[in-house]
Amino acid sequence: MNTPICDFVKKYAETNTLRLHMPGHKGEGLLGVEHLDITEIDGADTLYSADGIIKQSQENASILFGSKNTYYSCEGSSLCIRAMLYLALLYAKKNSLPNKILALRNVHKSFVSGIGLLDLDVEWYFGKNPSNYLSCSVSPEDLDAYLSESAELPVAFYVTSPDYLGNMLDISGISKVCKKHGVLLLVDNAHGAYLKFLDASCHPIEIGADLCCDSAHKTLPALTGCAYLHVSSSAPSFLSENAENALSLFASTSPSYLLLQSLDRLNSILDTDLFKMQLQSTANKINRLKERLTDKGYKLVGNEKLKLTVNAKEYGFSGFELAKILKQNEIVSEFADPDFVVLMFSYKASDYQLNKLSEVLLSLEKRTIDGKKIPAVSPCETVCSIKDAISAVSEPISAQYSCGRVLATLSVSCPPAVPFIVCGERISAETVKLFEYYGINECRVIIE
Ligand SMILES: Cc1ncc(COP(=O)(O)O)c(C=O)c1O
């Protein structure tokens, strides 16, 4: 597959051109990559008004992912999530539908900021007995019943799949229900770009999402910040007609050409049989490792192929403790909290890497600890809209004494930036227990 962006920049860097344009380093600098870092000069195309090399490269990505259109983001899935919400808003306006999004509660904070900036209404779906704030699930049957009983249908249903811990939803079933009710399906697939390239692809854009975002940088070999917004071939054409406009509402006017080259070069890798073979082989090896760990007594979470999430607490360790042991063995995890450790692998994780991890984990014997149980995540009273909360005057206070106050900030934990209480909601006694459990000492509340 061709690489028009990389080819253009390489050719430009090889000339002796006097760069009287941005960036200020003029192609020379401390990192050694500056010669490849250009801006939207003549011939380099314009992201979000693309009709040249960026358009060609995005079309390559669209072929690879099987979408109607794929758009690049140099600002992560965060940008694409806000753009998806803006598209839903425009779609609602055009079709005289309510400005309301139904969302599974385990959203990333960029969803909350998008809702606030666009002043959309949000209806939260908490799911049945969520075991922790990072996971929230719905079956197609439950969604069907919920939508059938709704007095007013939302314009879109928004889900996160895979979630941060590696749980995946039945996107195909959910999509059929959304289609039946005339509701758009928006998927935060930030953790699942690679799903398209497994032997049995289960990428949301292929199995029913209207719009979805992927962070290329999370699971594919791309630079941090690289992401995609995909529009499905079966989605209303209005969405692709307005997608560039939606992305540019929130995006910087100075996209990074290093990131654009990373996405462009990635196409040529994703297009190879070698990539797919390595990915599938790694997924199989991780699966075998998961089986060995389960046999040893570990409780693992989720069914995502490139992720291994250990419920450390069930094995007698806190997540922090297990992450520390791994670190002492030169293995750094993606995330740890009192309960879980999340480990993310490359598509071509080597036997050496997998064995190294397996040796450490299998050398530990199961213990029993009297760890505290995760406090229940329950709905809090909504006092004002997210927009009103983020534009209100606020003050920091000790989380311990925050009960009864109204939260003002987008997220209370980062990473993973999934808010267990959303701004505009009243902090309850249960929330204070969650603050304590997750070691959150301070929060910002609205001055009423
Ligand atoms: C579930 C989820 N969605 C969205 C995002 C935002 O992605 P990005 O960092 O690419 O902006 C993250 C980031 O960690 C995430 O975990």
Task: Explain this structure.
It is a single chain. By secondary structure, the protein is α/β, with parallel strands linked by helices. It folds into 3 domains: 4-270, Type I PLP-dependent aspartate aminotransferase-like (Major domain) (Aspartate Aminotransferase, domain 2); 273-363, Alpha-Beta Complex (Aspartate Aminotransferase, domain 1), CATH 3.90.1150.150; 386-446, Molybdopterin biosynthesis moea protein, domain 2 (Alpha-Beta Complex), CATH 3.90.105. It contains 14 helices and 13 strands. It has helices at residues 4-14, 53-65, 76-94, 109-118, 140-149, 171-181, 216-219, 237-250, 257-270, 273-296, 319-328, 351-363, 386-390, 429-437; strands spanning 69-73, 100-104, 121-125, 156-160, 184-188, 211-215, 227-231, 300-301, 307-311, 335-336, 340-344, 394-398, 442-446. The strands form 3 sheets. Strands 1-7-6-5-4-2-3 form a 7-stranded mixed sheet, sandwiched between helices. A 4-stranded antiparallel sheet has the order 8-9-11-10. Strands 12-13 form a two-stranded antiparallel sheet. β8 and β9 (307-311) form a beta hairpin. α3 (76-94) packs parallel to α4 (109-118) and α5 (140-149) runs parallel beside α6. The structure holds pyridoxal-5'-phosphate. Pyridoxal-5'-phosphate (PLP) is lined by residues 76-78, 108, 110, 160, 164, 188, 190-191, 215, 227, 416.
